[in-house]
Amino acid sequence: MLRTSDSTDRANPPATEEHPERRADRTSARLLAQRGLFFGPSALVPEDLYSRVERGTARRERDRVALAPGSLVSTNTYFGRFHATYWQRWTDIGEVEVSAVATGTGRLKLMASDTNKVWRIVAAVDVRDGEAVPVRLVGPVDRFVDGGGMWLEITTETGELTVSDVRWTVAATRPVPPTDIAITTHNRVDDCLNTLQALARDPEAFERIRTVHVADQGSDPIESRERFGDIAAALGEHLKYVRQPNLGGAGGFARGMLHATEGAPDEQADVLLMDDDVHLEPELLVRLTAFAASTRHPMIVGAQMLNLLHPGHLHISAEYADPEVLLMGLKMPGALREAYLLGLDDRQLPVNQERRVDTEYNGWWSCLIPAAVIRAIGYPLPLFLQWDDIEYGYRARANGFPTVSLPGAGVWHADFGWKDGDEWQRYFTIRNGLIMAALHSGFSIRRITGRLTELVSHQLVAMQYGMTATLLQAVEDFLDGPEVLWDGSAGALARVREIRKAYPETVMHPMSEAGGEFHDRPVIRAANEPGSETLTFLKRAAYHLTGRSAYRTGAVPAGDAHWWHVSLFERAIVTDMSEQGFRVRIRDRQTALQLGKRAALLLRRFVREAPAVAGRYRAELGRLSSRENWERLYELKN
Fold first, then answer.
1. What 3-state DSSP class applies to 147?
2. How far is Cα 454 from Cα 315, in angstroms, rounded to an integer?
3. Paired strand residues for 214
4. 179-185 vs 270-275, strand pairing mode
5. Helix, strand, coil shares of the chain as percentages rounded to 5?
6. Could you tell me how many helices (H) and strands (E) the chain has, helices first?
7. CA nearest 244: which of 624, 625, 635, 629?
8. Distance between CA atoms of 282 and 495, rounded to whole angstroms?
């Protein structure tokens, strides 16, 4: 049986009827760090990311949960936890206060874990025959430096209990600065309107925002849609919408950053960068702004990415990049990657980022950058897309502004694993990766040329001739120096798209065009990975030079389209990674030899010229990332 104390625990006195963060004097009191939510923003996301019914039955709603007798609901979940380890590491808060309203009979417990997921009870309150009873639980944030978090457990035995209006608050260490949202969009009209609509439908979360700045760079403007008017009316004076030429993600986000940091420092706002095609959880507005307002020193506070097509999976919780080998999105030791957040680990405990893992940067699917950081280091480089967010994060770190990827603050974004690597965007991956290496690495010519040689070699034997041409153009443009960025990379976009038109295998054919081409071919799966990649490549290259092959033709699933497998074919029908179509790769010895010769000459040039070119990029960094340069690109000043 539940026991109800006759006296109140001194460490956890009853809450006043008014929540602390709602007092008239908003400069005092407490800061709302996160809301206790039991259900997602829509039925398209799993409710178990917010709360779990671990025993009995319960009806979960957005801001309340109703338990039947004999039930247990836990918020030891991705969105339900208070990730105390990050708060203790980066802020000076001493405790967190959880307030709620309870009706019925049951118990609320504030739970905590340590770095090894061992749980403990921090505080508990029993409610008996209550009617809208204010409840208050307090937990010290003092044993979480390396890991751990807090959550609620709500239980009933013979009675029913409804808990609502859960608030996690912390002491306000300084006034909360205004925050602007900067969204860039390009012909994703419905996605962008859905994001704006989600903002408008959560007024409590939206209270944290001064302005929503939308830079529309597409040929299909969102203002042309009927529902744009309704959304604009709902957002009112908070919405600032501009049309501009397509300068990529960097150009769209920089426009919002310029707007947020106009005027004197006391007139400026922090800026929350946000992709247009996310499934938004408005709660992240509360969590990112509260955390950023509590850190000891200004720092970038990033939201984490969950996969849109697989909404129970976390993309990555902390990452780093190795630009000398053109790799980004590498998992920090101890971080979660493609983690199934609804599952259990080998100890049958929930999958959470229990140990704190610090990140090197955060993707700009949703990321808050304080105005103080922008004043200190400038704006993004005009890279168009790819590596712009990474470069900015590393530049900030080099100037004393670290980044945190905050668990529990997440958005759903299109799965990276469903994007094919043979697209025009690959140009920017290569070119901008080299620029990143020039700015933020030792710029080892041996490592970089080794990586470029590997990529070209593998692409040629895999019959990706357009991809090879794309890579070579990226390297050539890098060697042209920082002047290639002077037009905001708009010229590069047009150039690379034109180059790729000459290579048929770059075209994805929709399944409606498949016919016998796809369906009548045998599906040939890949064998085990090669024991020696070097020996395997030499064998495949010999096959191509002598006109031999293991298979004349065949269909290759996307997951099996490794270079060492596709290179066995004369003609391969390869499923696109999006699984919405297919590509046809046909061996062309003459094209391969021409591209191989061009690559050899270019790499020799790279060895000779790249060190000096890297110095030129470093010398021009300040000018290229300046406010004046972006104003010139936007033609805001003569």
1. strand
2. 27
3. 183, 241
4. parallel
5. 35, 30, 35
6. 17, 24
7. 635
8. 39
Average pLDDT over residues 202-229: 96
Give the model's pLDDT for residue 128. Answer: 97
Spell 545-577 as b/e; 16+ CB within 10 A means b.
eeeebebebbbbebebbebbbbbbbbebbbbbb
Same fold, 20-171 and 179-305+358-412: yes
**CB within 8 A of 474, min separation 6: which ones?**
426, 427, 428, 429, 430, 431, 434, 496
Query: What percentage of the chain has pLDDT greater than the value 90?
Result: 84
End-to-end CA distance of the chain: 77
Contacts of 30 (CB under 8 A, 6+ apart): 20, 21, 97, 169, 170, 171, 172
In this predicted model, what pLDDT tens digit does every residue of 246-268 receive, in sequence order?
A: 999 999 999 999 999 999 999 99
CATH of domain 20-171: 3.90.550.60
Range with lowest mean pLDDT among 68-72, 332-336, 345-349, 405-409: 345-349
Nearest by Cα to 271 from 344, 182, 401, 356: 182
Residue whose pair of structure tokens reads 């300040």 in the numeric block: 622
DSSP E strands, 204-259? 209-216, 239-243
Distance separating alpha carbons of residues 323 and 326, to the nearest angstrom: 4
pLDDT of 149 reads 97
For 95, 117, 375, the CA distances from 138, given in Å and listed in that order, are 7, 20, 38
DSSP H or E stretch at residue 128: strand 119-140
- The answer to whether 196 and 212 have CB atoms below 8 angstroms apart is yes
**Residue 559 has what DSSP assignment?**
G
Q: What is the pLDDT of residues 526-552, one digit of tens each?
A: 888 888 989 989 988 998 888 898 899
- Cα–Cα distance, 583 to 574 (Å, whole number): 5
In which residue are the tokens 């986000």 written?
A: 253
Alpha carbons within 13 A on the beta-carbon side of 212: 27
Nearest CA-CA partner of 117 in 85, 73, 164, 159 = 85
Say if residues 212 and 197 touch (Cβ distance below 8 Å). no
Return the closest-CA partner of residue 352 out of 364, 362, 360, 344.
344
179-305+358-412 CATH pick, 3.40.50.970, 3.50.50.60, 3.90.550.60, 3.40.50.300: 3.90.550.60
Domain boundaries, the chain: 20-171, 179-305+358-412, 441-591
pLDDT value for 517? 62
Distance of alpha carbon 423 from alpha carbon 432, whole angstroms: 15
| pLDDT tier, 17 (very low <50, low <70, confident <90, very high otherwise) | very low
Q: How far apart are CA 524 and CA 573, in angstroms?
A: 10
Tell me the mean pLDDT in the region 478-501: 95
d(CA 133, CA 155): 16
Q: How far apart are CA 102 and CA 2, in angstroms?
A: 15
Rounded to 10 degrees, the C-alpha dihedral 427/428/431/436 comes to -160
Helix/strand/coil for 250: helix
